[in-house]
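tmp note - Antitoxin
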Amino acid sequence: MKQYTFSDMNRASGEILEAALIEPVTLTKRGKDKLVILTADQYRKLIGSSHTKAYDLLDAPQDVHQELMTGLDDIMGRDDA
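out:
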């Protein structure tokens, strides 16, 4: 991934944006990564790749509760079947 400074962005934004169309680029400030520029398709792929969901205990669907309880029973060595 190519890196540019904020100053580079001020001087050559067109070049940096063109580079971001090819691959993600990092913008740094004072030597630290601050921003990543990537295409909309790359962003959608990135956020769509996570299949993990978090639920509040009271709001979780019944199948999630059942899967959790089955897993806990397996860990505890219980077999109520």
